[in-house]
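Exercise 4. Each item below gives a protein and its sequence. For each, produce the structure-token representation.

Item: C2H2-type domain-containing protein (Brachypodium distachyon).
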Amino acid sequence: MTRGKQKIDAQRRSAEKNQKAKGSQLEARAVGLKIICPICKVQLANEKQLTDHYGSKHPREKPPGPSNAD
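Answer:
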């Protein structure tokens, strides 16, 4: 059985080990965003969002095909 400083150190190490990984939501978002609108340079996550984006922001333009989006 540990006492004093050893006990405190063991608790600190355990807390650090069990702590969730800190990461920015912005970093996670940047990893998930793969498609970029060629007109306004907005980053989108998938083809469906690109189609919706074109429908609302660029109604006169035709959305690019799947091979052009990347």
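Check: The mean pLDDT is 83.
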